[in-house]
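Sample entry (112 residues):
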Amino acid sequence: MSSGTLSSCLNHPSIEAVGRCKQCGKPFCGTCEILGPTGRFCSDACKQRHEVFVKRASKLDDMRRTSGVFGKLMARLKKLLVYAAAILIIAVVIHFFGVRVPIVSDIISKVL
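Predicted structure, serialized as tokens:
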């Protein structure tokens, strides 16, 4: 066991525990151990509860990233980049089709 103290399995008191449940912290033996994508658990119920917790925490983390001043600034920056890319594409297309737009044509010819 990782804790350094010996204990017995929750369901089999005569067997030494090999780990503790990631959800509830109860000791379990190799027979009772349930492996999940997020860790080792003493039961399917604890495994499911932990998976629900991880999903909720992930959603809250995503919400935190997109809210507040930094999130709003990033959203505006993304919009600005999309607009700039669209304008650049339109300008390049106009230039290659030979349409002469004084300001756009001069800028594009300098860039290319």
